[in-house]
Inverse folding.
């Protein structure tokens, strides 16, 4: 594994072969390549490492209810298990450690374990002691005293300071009076020492016991038809929705992953407009997605996972007339929008809301309809007429420069227009607290104009503006733009 | 139907408005006016690259809070969304803005969906020739008498049931409200802005062709 530290790449995790070849953690990648030209490597992905550790933590919850992910040392993660009151269930501490080691070895992980009265002591034993050491009750101090000071989890600089002064082991450090250690090396050093020895309390914040909202089904025979998958999906949905209902939750997004007989896998997902747990609605959404799944030589097992859940109170069955008039109609609308959003995207189904801005294009907000309700308070009547269609400003071309009033004749979209009537100006100044590239030309004078093409009976109503703040040396002929259309 | 209400579009049918350009404002005003006269949500479907609708500009026509906009990437997505919306019966009206004309099969599918859901559909797009739409309208603005009023000319160039009726609508720009002049009967007299209006009124021949097409496609 290679990590990017500043501008250089350094090694941060090695396998045994690399270690045997003489590579060490923290070595520059260039040096490592010089030693081992055929070095295979991958970039470090801290987030995935941590997700993996958390997953391992969940696995470890089979041994004790309080498990937490400890501080990382380099690329090695630490899992801390509070074994108090649990070890006897596995036939003693030694057996428990053995079981954990065997379990992790099945995942292909190498482990170092330590067990002591306090968390710090156990970590020190695990990292620096002999493998799988167990400190007897009250014997933590004795066990960790011969270990180097680095075992306390001090930062590297502090460790180097201690070693330079001859304080190589924990014994050396523990022998000194606390007050002087604290003065010379900081309170943190003393605290870590006390925690390792179990003098200072070091409580554990256990990982939450959250089982993912997922159900799985393995099949005796591979299946390959959409109908069969839909049948299994119905069964999975029934189970999942029953669980969601028990917990008062509704799913927002669901993932269906399949494992194929040939070992491959595929997945698809649907989102819901509102949190829901109605198996039929969700099945309808999935119905359109199942064809995308590649069944290959047949599907062995399916897993349905509600990746996003939100609280959803039990719905009251509508009695007689609904005061809102919503009810069934509202549900139908949600179902419709859900189907649409799953095809065109949740960002593309939009509700509008008024916004406090004079800038025309910022005077309303767009919300994804999935996360907003229809506003109850109506829209304000605009201070001045606003066009129906807003354009990206389109420049007008004209023969005679117009400075204050709109041009009498102009060309727009390659058609000649004559201005019949102009109403304005309405001056709009940019919002200086927001830097909008479109408004860097300064304030604008907006006019509503009625323009006709020569010898045509229809008229256009346009919203044009002029930027008087643009210096006059730039072409005065091109400082009028169409920003909107009324008709 | 009273004069005050303006044009009446039958429910459970699709109707067309000829839009001369992408984001044609006159066509949008017509659609907003029709949507404002109906209860329920209006599903407004437009291509993602169309010039946006400015909700403040719809003041007095329709409550922008009752609109749900759907921005679609492809014309096919737009048609699909319109069909779903029409069929569901969950919305009061579906407006589909497109830069492509409808063909007969597409319009027939939309028409069947509208019948199934009892929803009114309005297609805003280029002149599509022979389609299954019940009515077709051409909307444009005329030179007006004063600065604060826009005079719209809503010309019905096709009506499957009966005579075409034309409307003159006056929109007050400060309040956004519309006032209707008395409708005038009688077909599409060709004026230069009306363009190909008279060529569209494919009567019985079109219907027979449609039936043949439907038989071929198994009822669309």
């Amino acid at each position: 594994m290679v990590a990017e530290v500043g501008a250089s790449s350094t090694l941060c995790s090695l396998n045994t072969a690399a270690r045997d070849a003489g590579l060490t953690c923290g070595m520059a990648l260039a040096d490592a390549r010089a030693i081992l030209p055929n070095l295979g490597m991958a970039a470090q992905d801290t987030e995935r490492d941590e997700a993996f550790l958390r997953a391992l933590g969940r696995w470890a919850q089979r041994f004790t209810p309080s498990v937490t992910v400890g501080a990382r040392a380099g690329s090695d993660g630490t899992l801390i298990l509070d074994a108090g009151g649990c070890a006897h269930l596995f036939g003693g501490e030694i057996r428990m450690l053995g079981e954990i080691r065997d379990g992790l070895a099945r995942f292909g992980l190498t482990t170092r374990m330590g067990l002591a009265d306090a968390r710090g002591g156990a970590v020190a034993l695990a990292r620096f002691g002999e493998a799988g050491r167990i400190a007897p009750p009250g014997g933590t101090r004795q066990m960790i005293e011969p270990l180097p000071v680095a075992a306390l989890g001090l930062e590297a600089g502090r460790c180097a300071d201690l070693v330079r002064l001859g304080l190589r082991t924990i014994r050396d450090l523990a022998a000194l009076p606390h007050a002087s250690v604290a003065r010379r090396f900081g309170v943190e050093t003393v605290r870590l020492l006390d925690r390792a020895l179990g003098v200072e309390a070091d409580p554990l914040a256990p990982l939450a016991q959250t089982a993912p909202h997922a159900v799985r089904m393995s099949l005796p025979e591979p299946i390959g038809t959409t109908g069969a998958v839909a049948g299994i999906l119905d069964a999975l949905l029934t189970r999942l929705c029953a669980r969601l209902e028990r917990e008062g939750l509704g799913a927002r997004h669901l993932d269906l992953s399949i494992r194929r007989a040939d070992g491959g896998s595929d997945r698809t997902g649907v989102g819901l407009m509102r949190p829901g747990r109605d198996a039929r609605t969700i099945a309808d959404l999935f119905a359109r997605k199942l064809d995308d799944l590649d069944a290959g030589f047949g599907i062995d097992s399916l897993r349905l996972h509600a990746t996003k859940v939100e609280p959803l109170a039990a719905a009251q069955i509508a009695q007689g007339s609904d005061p809102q008039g919503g009810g069934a109609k509202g549900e139908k609308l949600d179902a419709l929008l859900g189907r649409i959003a799953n095809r065109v995207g949740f960002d593309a189904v939009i509700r509008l809301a008024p916004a406090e801005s004079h800038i025309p294009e910022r005077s309303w907000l767009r919300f994804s309809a999935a996360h907003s309700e229809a506003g109850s308070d109506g829209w304000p009547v605009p201070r001045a007429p606003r066009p129906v269609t807003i354009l990206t400003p389109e420049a007008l071309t004209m023969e005679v420069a117009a400075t204050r009033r709109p041009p009498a004749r102009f060309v727009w979209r390659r058609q000649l227009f004559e201005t019949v009537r102009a109403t304005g100006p309405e001056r709009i100044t940019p919002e200086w607290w927001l830097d909008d590239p479109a408004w860097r030309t300064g304030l604008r004078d907006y006019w509503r104009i009625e323009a006709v093409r020569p010898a045509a009976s229809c008229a256009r109503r346009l919203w044009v503006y002029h930027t008087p703040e643009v210096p006059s040396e730039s072409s005065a002929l091109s400082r009028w733009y169409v920003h909107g259309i009324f008709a | 139907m009273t004069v005050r209400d303006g044009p009446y579009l039958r429910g459970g049918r699709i109707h067309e408005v000829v839009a001369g350009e992408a984001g044609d404002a006159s066509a949008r005003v017509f659609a907003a006016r029709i949507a404002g006269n109906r209860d329920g949500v209006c599903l407004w479907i437009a291509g993602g690259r169309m010039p946006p609708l400015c909700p403040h500009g719809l003041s007095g026509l329709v409550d922008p809070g009752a609109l749900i906009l759907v921005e679609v990437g492809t014309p096919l997505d737009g048609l699909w969304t319109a069909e779903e919306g029409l069929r569901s019966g969950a919305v009061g009206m579906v407006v589909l803005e497109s830069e492509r004309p409808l063909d007969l099969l597409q319009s027939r599918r939309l028409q069947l969906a509208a019948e199934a859901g009892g929803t009114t559909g309005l297609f805003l797009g280029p002149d599509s020739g022979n389609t299954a739409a019940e009515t077709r309208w051409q909307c444009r603005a005329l030179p007006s008498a004063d600065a604060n009023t826009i005079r719209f000319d809503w010309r019905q160039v096709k009506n499957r049931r009966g005579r075409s009726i034309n409307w003159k609508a006056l929109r007050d720009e400060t309040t956004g409200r519309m006032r209707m002049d008395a409708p005038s009967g009688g077909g599409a007299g060709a004026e230069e802005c009306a363009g190909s209006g008279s060529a569209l009124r494919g009567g019985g021949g079109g219907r027979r062709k449609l039936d043949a097409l439907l038989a071929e496609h198994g009822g669309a």
